[in-house]
Structures are given as structure tokens and as C-alpha cells.
Design brief:
Shape of chain B: elongated
Strand order of the largest sheet of chain B: 4-3-2-1-7-6-5
Number of strands of chain A: 11
Strand content of chain B: 15-25%
Shape of chain A: globular
Strand order of the largest sheet of chain A: 1-11-10-9-8-7-6-5-4-3-2
Oligomer: heterodimer
Structural class of chain B: alpha+beta
Helix content of chain B: 40-55%
Distance between the termini of chain B: 72 Å
Radius of gyration of chain B: 34 Å
Largest sheet of chain A: 11 strands, antiparallel
């Protein structure tokens, strides 16, 4: 849409490096999360939609690029609608089995069949409700194409017994990025299926190493306890082995998160802007581990601070490379496009937030 | 009148303009950087939520907006534009009571609501999945060489004489397996569906058949009360709650720490189940206490006092011996606090 509006070409004689700035404060975020979570529980979850808006407004509002911040505009009622829908499916899936064994199956089928549609609507909601410099982001995708991508991906994943999952993930990510826009400028994804396989191979490698190392501990201590005739040895070895497996699996999560973040951002462009993400899986892992201990030692009070640290780390380790003039050359979608407005309004009714 | 600094975005382009704001009784006058002035009536201004230290956004007609970083100056001229939730978020008393109530809520869920729910749905879950879960566990034990089925007939002959006791007559359909496992040592456990496993090491440690019977009855108690499924359901509910609150980044690890601490009651429940059946068959519940004592003594002799005891899910043997020895009649069972 609005293809007739093309941004003027900025001069690219002076590309500079603009790190994303995060100006939030850990204590302030902690207070925000504690109060909003308490209110959410007090209202049996209803307030959680409003809580989400406040939290997003806080995070977006504290994220700055070249001195300008983001803003979130989600309507809590729409969010509540989305949560009720997903919640109903979830209850059907999790507990419907007590009424009829078909209910969980029906919920799963609705979820699998509905996912491509939900994906489009959910992304539309998230992007349409985000702005930067008073220019809205947007997402407009063909639901038919979404179905094609998801079902081809499902089939490939199924027939390769899961080995083809990176293919599905790449196709979906590409679909998401290429249909996203800032104002009238579209994002351009350049990542390939091979890039996704690279990340997956690393994650699976860590995963197997973790299980191998943990299994080795358990095995050695089992043999050791037989030799020494002491079961305490075996017990400790078992404990260390299980902890090793958990610690390793958490590292696999960090490798996945950092790998995907770096891959998707480094291979995406918009107009003359390139992204430079420098997330390190080891640092992310260190934050995870510290968060766990901090959360436990503060009896849970430190948990929001832990979440804050992950957000801040991700934000601060992304930079934009561009000529500064580019920042001021984005143009909003022409709102006088009446046909588009009608289509948007029709879509609006079904726009809801599905991300928790 | 003091002018307030702000950034103006027209909503058509991403270019900001530095402006100064002048609020009066009825209007806002925006002083643009080129000297032009724009006057907007108050009724046309829309103030977005105030969250933390984020610059306040004021929506103007035709999609334009202002970003105001100076909260103090803004609230000085517009005292009624304070945000109630923002006030709550910055009221330390409210923050602390929020934390206290969340903490209390988590404790109530963890210690009461989740165990009670798990208890309520465990029977249904056992009838749905108990049998397949039991088969899986047995295959697992087999595959990973955690145990060997005992071939030695003397153990099976002993088991036959234990099974012959009247007290076990109602539980004839239960499978009792003897395994050889130095790792598990003197131990017995229940699987969700009518299956009990005892180790050869336990039979060696407890030579008295009646005392082994007491242990078997204790394990039957676990099965009749659906304890295994109760634990599985409880654990899944805890991890589900963690996922709902913290999302995927956080879930797996805290489970190690949180894996259900409510198993102490479960042991007592099984003890009392065993005590009741023993009394009905004119056997003293202290038999179970004696068996526990023997197992405990043999552990200590082999390993010394272990640090692992801190992590033990069973109530201490001392505590159990105490209440088991006190039970002499069915009336006494009521005296044991659950």
C-alpha cells in the first residue's frame, strides 16, 4: 500500500554508528511490575491487559535511537479479547480432557489451523500499535500466503522428523519482516534458510553436550558408588549430573536467543539503515544465571529486575549504521487512502494481541 | 509565564521540531522554532498515560504530538494531569504491600491451592495415564540399567510368604517387583498404577517379614492416595505458572528448586494408611517404625550422616518413629496431625 510514496534518497556520504540507548531504571521497573502484577491478580487477571500496556509503554518509551524514543499504543480491551481467546483454547487443551477426550484435540486442531491467521493478526496488532517519532510501524500481510508458508513448513518439519524446523522458522521470520514497515518504508529481510540451520546446529550441539556431560557425571558416580560401596557418592553425583543438564540446557536457550537476535537483525535493512547486533550468548547466559540466584536470594523481589536486565542487555547491544539524515526522512502512510482505511477498520475488529 | 521545552512531531514525517509550550487557562500555545505560534484549545489535547520517567506524550489534532520530558514543569501548570497508577507505582507503601501480597499469593498457591487441585484431579489422571506411565517407568529402569530383576529364588520365596499375610488380601492384584540396585540401596517405591518396587538390599536390611509387610503397606498407601500422579500434576502446575508469569526465558531452571516441597505430608498419609491396615489385622504399627529404623541405621553405618538429608523429602525417621509408636488403637490415628 501507499507504494506511490517513496522516500527521498538520503545522501550516504556519512554513515555513522548509532547504538540503541536504554534509559530505563531497574528499580523503577521493579516497582512498575510489582504493582501491576498485584493489581492483575487482585482483578482475577482482567487488569493484566492494562498492565501489559503500561509495561510496554515503559520499555518502548525508554528505548531511544538517536535521541528519539518509541511509543506503544495498544488498546487494553483488544489485548483482553486476545487473552480470553487464547486462554479459552488453553483451558480446553489443558483441562477439557476431563469432560471429553475430544476437547483437547479440537483445541489443538483449532490452534494449528488458526495459527497462520493468528500470526498475521497478532503481528498487525503489535506493529500497528508501535510508533517512533510519531510515525507508526505497520504490518500488512496476505493471510492466504501465511497459510501457504505455515502448512508447507509443517509438512517439511513433519516429513524430516523435525530436522526441517529451521526451514519453517526462516520462512515465517522472513514473512514477518518483509511485511513489516515503518511509516511507508518496508523492512527487507536477507537471511537465508542456511543461516537458520547454522544457529540450530549450534543449539543442538550445546543441547547434546549438556546431556552427555550430565550423563557422564551420573554414570561415573554410579560406578564410583559401586566401587566405594557408598550410596551418598551416587546421590551427589546424580544431583550434580542433573544440575549440569539443566545448566547446559539453559545455555542452549541463551545460544538460541542470542543467535536468532543477531541473525535476524544483522540480515535486515530498512531504507539506508543497517543493523549491527552484538549479543553474546555467554553474557546472556551469565545474566540468566545471576538472575536465578538473585531471584532466589531476594525471595522473588529481584525477579522483575532480572527481566529488566535481559531487556536492557538486548536493547543496548543493537546499533544502527546509517547517515543521520535518514532518521528524519521517514514518511507516514498516507491516511487519506480511503480504501486502505476501510480495510484497516475491518481488520481492527479482529486485531488483538496474542503475545504474552 | 515559564515556557516548557518539548519536541513536536507532525505525524507525517519523522523529523522532530524543538518547540516551547505556553499553557494558559483555555489554550496551549506552541512556539515553533521559526517563530510561528500555534494555538490549540485544551479540549483538543489528549494526554497519554504517564509511565515512569518516560517523556509525557500529548496528542494534538490531525495526528501531531508533543513529547515533554520535563514532568515537574508540566505538572506545575497542570496539577490535575497526574496519573493515578503512576502515583501507586511510586508510592513505596503500595509497592511493598504489592510485593507482600504477591509473595503471600505465591505461597498460598504453592502450599495450598496447587496441592489441593493436584489432589483433586490425581485420581482421574491416574485412571487416564497411570498404566502407561507405570509401563514407561519400568522400561526406563530396564533400559538405563538402574536395576536388575532379582533371579535368586530365596527373595521370591520370602515375597510369597509376605504376600500370604491376610493384610495384603485386598491388594492381590498389585504387582510387587524385587530389583537389585546398589544405587537405590535399601529402598522401596510406588509407581502410579498398582505396582510396587522393593530392592533386594531392603530385604537384606529388614530380615523380619512383618516389617517388610509394613513397608509394602506404606507403598500401597501412596498408590491408593494417588500420590505419584499428585506430584506430577503439582509439578506441571508449578512450571505452568512460572511460564505464565516469566515466559520461556526463565522456566526450566527454577523447577529444580521448586519441585514440590509438599511431599512430607504425603509420607505421613501413607504411614497412616499402613497403620490403619495393620491395626485392622491385629498388627502393631510400630513394625513400620522398626523397619524404618533399621534402614536408617544401615544408611548411617555405610555413609555417615549425609548432607543430602537436608534435601530429603521424607520427614525424619525420628519424627515418624515417634508417631508410629504412639499408635496403638484406631482411635490414636486421629491424634496424628496431618
Amino acid at each position: 500500500m501507499s507504494a506511490e510514496i517513496s522516500t527521498s534518497q538520503p545522501t550516504q556520504n556519512n554513515p555513522q554508528y548509532y547504538p540503541v540507548e536504554f534509559r530505563g531504571d531497574g528499580m523503577e521497573y521493579t516497582k512498575l511490575i510489582l504493582v501491576n502484577t498485584a493489581l492483575s491478580i487482585l482483578t482475577l487477571g482482567i487488569f493484566s491487559a492494562w498492565a501489559k500496556v503500561r509495561t510496554k509503554k515503559y520499555i518502548y518509551g525508554n528505548t531511544y535511537i538517536n535521541g528519539a524514543n518509541f511509543n506503544y499504543h495498544g488498546d487494553p480491551i483488544q489485548i483482553l479479547k486476545g487473552r480470553l481467546l487464547v486462554g479459552a483454547l488453553f483451558i480446553m487443551y489443558g483441562f477439557g480432557g476431563h469432560l471429553s477426550i475430544w476437547l483437547p484435540l479440537v483445541a489443538m486442531v483449532i490452534f494449528i489451523v488458526g495459527l497462520p491467521w493468528l500470526f498475521v493478526r497478532g503481528n498487525a496488532f503489535a506493529m500497528n500499535n508501535t510508533s517512533h517519532r510519531n510515525i507508526r510501524f505497520g504490518f500488512k500481510a496476505d493471510v492466504k500466503e501465511s497459510y501457504k508458508i505455515f502448512f508447507t513448513g509443517y509438512l517439511v518439519t513433519l516429513f524430516t522428523l523435525g530436522l526441517g524446523a529451521p526451514y519453517l522458522y526462516q520462512r515465517v521470520s522472513e514473512f514477518r519482516v518483509k511485511n513489516s514497515r515503518f511509516g511507508s518504508s518496508f523492512f527487507k529481510p536477507r537471511f537465508s534458510v542456511g543461516d537458520f540451520f547454522n544457529v540450530y546446529i549450534r543449539v543442538i550441539g550445546v543441547y547434546f553436550l549438556a546431556i552427555l556431560a550430565g550423563g557422564l557425571f551420573i554414570g561415573i558416580s554410579a560406578v564410583g558408588s559401586k566401587v566405594a560401596g557408598s550410596s551418598a557418592f551416587g546421590g551427589i553425583g546424580m544431583g550434580v549430573g542433573i544440575l549440569t543438564i539443566y545448566a547446559g540446557l539453559l545455555f542452549a536457550v541463551a545460544v538460541f536467543q542470542a543467535g536468532m537476535f543477531n541473525l535476524v537483525y544483522s540480515m535486515t535493512e530498512i531504507e539506508q539503515i543497517k543493523f549491527k547486533p552484538v549479543l553474546k550468548s555467554t553474557t546472556l547466559y551469565k545474566i540468566y544465571i545471576q538472575n536465578i540466584f538473585f531471584g532466589i536470594f531476594t525471595l522473588g523481589f529481584g525477579i522483575p529486575y532480572g527481566m529488566y536486565r535481559i531487556i536492557a542487555y538486548k536493547a543496548k547491544n543493537l546499533a544502527l549504521v546509517t547517515d543521520p539524515a535518514q532518521f528524519e526522512q521517514f514518511i507516514a502512510v498516507n491516511s487519506a487512502d480511503s480504501k486502505g482505511a476501510v480495510a484497516d477498520a475491518a481488520g481492527d475488529f479482529w486485531d488483538f494481541d496474542v503475545g504474552f | 509565564m515559564n515556557l516548557i521545552e518539548a519536541s513536536y512531531y507532525d505525524g507525517n514525517t519523522s523529523k522532530p521540531v524543538s518547540v516551547k509550550l505556553e499553557f494558559s487557562d483555555q489554550t496551549l500555545v506552541i512556539h515553533m522554532d521559526d517563530g510561528a505560534k500555534v494555538t490549540i484549545p485544551w479540549a483538543d489535547l489528549h494526554f497519554q498515560l504517564k509511565v515512569g520517567n518516560v517523556p509525557r506524550v500529548i496528542d494534538l489534532p490531525h495526528g501531531a504530538c508533543l513529547h515533554v520530558a520535563d514532568h515537574a514543569a508540566l505538572e506545575n501548570v497542570l496539577p490535575h494531569k497526574k496519573d493515578f497508577l503512576h502515583y501507586l507505582e511510586n508510592n513505596s507503601k503500595f509497592v511493598i504491600s504489592s510485593f507482600a501480597s504477591l509473595f503471600a499469593f505465591a505461597l498460598i498457591m504453592y502450599f495450598f491451592v496447587i496441592p489441593a487441585t493436584a489432589k483433586a484431579i490425581a485420581p482421574k489422571m491416574t485412571s487416564l495415564f497411570g498404566e502407561s506411565l507405570t509401563d514407561q517407568t519400568l522400561t526406563y529402569l530396564d533400559k538405563f540399567n538402574i536395576s536388575k530383576q532379582v533371579k535368586d529364588n530365596t527373595y521370591h520365596d520370602r515375597l510369597e510368604s509376605i504376600r500370604a499375610f491376610e493384610a495384603l488380601a485386598p491388594y492381590e492384584k498389585y504387582k510387587i517387583l524385587i530389583i537389585d540396585s546398589p544405587e537405590l540401596d535399601a529402598n522401596a517405591f510406588a509407581l502410579p498404577y498398582e505396582t510396587i518396587i522393593i530392592t533386594k538390599q531392603l530385604m537384606d536390611t529388614v530380615p523380619d517379614d512383618l516389617e517388610v509387610l509394613a513397608i509394602v503397606l506404606h507403598e500401597i498407601g501412596h498408590i491408593e492416595h494417588f500420590h505419584v500422579m499428585q506430584r506430577i500434576v503439582g509439578d506441571s502446575m508449578v512450571s505452568l505458572a512460572l511460564f505464565a508469569v516469566f515466559g520461556a526465558d526463565w522456566t526450566s531452571v527454577p523447577m529444580v528448586v521448586l519441585s514440590t516441597g509438599y511431599s512430607r505430608n504425603v509420607e505421613k498419609e501413607a504411614d497412616i494408611f499402613a497403620a490403619r491396615i495393620m491395626l485392622n489385622n491385629d498388627l502393631p504399627p510400630s513394625l513400620l517404625a522398626k523397619a524404618l529404623h533399621k534402614i536408617d541405621t544401615s544408611y548411617d553405618a555405610k555413609n555417615g550422616k549425609s548432607v543430602l538429608e537436608y534435601f530429603s523429602t521424607h520427614p525424619s525417621t525420628g519424627e515418624r518413629t515417634k508417631y508410629l509408636e504412639k499408635i496403638e488403637t484406631l482411635e490414636d490415628i486421629k491424634q496424628v496431625p496431618l
